[in-house]
Design brief:
This protein has 276 residues and is mostly beta strands. It has one domain. It is built from one helix and 18 strands. Strands 3, 4, 8, 10, 11, 12, 15, 16 and 18 form a nine-stranded mixed beta sheet that branches. A hairpin with a 3-residue loop joins β6 and β7. The chain is globular. The relative contact order is 0.21.
Amino acid sequence: MKIGNKSKSFAIGLGVTLFAVYSATCGTIFQSGGSGTTYTDVTGDGQGSSNKGRDISYATIANDANNLYITIALNPAGNIETQGNFNYVMAITSGNPSAGGDTSASADFGNPWSRAISIDSSFGGMTDWIGAYGAGGSGSASSPFTSFGFNDWVYSSGAWTQVENVASGQPISMQPSTSTPNQFTLTVPLSDLSNLNLTPGSTFDFDIDSTGTSAGQTAYDSLVVQGPIQATFSSTAQFNATVLDQYTITAVPEPTALALAGLSASSLMLFRRQRN
């Protein structure tokens, strides 16, 4: 948990989520977890309109030895294929106050897409960005999205560099117990986030936001903020994250280790049979 500028990493077991007290204090972690953790948001707090495409429900983060798997789920009443054209972004930092991330909210708004979304300097500013967008259509009933694409960026030496652009092919699916497509999953190589040193036991801090498709637009909803992000909504007001979620990379057994474990189990069973 991180309070102020002090941090402590927790390696959380598979599928376990830790809830901290939500606070507006700079540098606070709200939810923490390891591979397979679901990070929740209240529904009904998307701002700017009643369109459910703005309203984040939850996100599930997992990893194997090579990739991050990021599932973003919207309000169960929403239809991500036909409800309109929105972007969904994952803003990331190492959490170190001296990380040297982007804090230039007055210049590029603190991110490579020039959205009005930044990470507070108490976390070190934003160091990585994953931006998702609908593909294969225009997001309408007559031209539904068929998948999602994304590009990811790293911040180093005062500049953003795009690492990869996957134009389409990230699958759209349904949340459990719903009848409409309202979530998608991104597969992002761990190697793309090279400035975070994502090895087993390491952590990063993040938020996921819905936003518009033009420069200067703010976040409509935040995964971390459990309620409206603005008292009186303005589409261009800067959203500066002072509370984030945290993810811990989980070690994945190597295939050879799994094979040896299976061989050991088989040998033990054979030994017991011989004794009997």
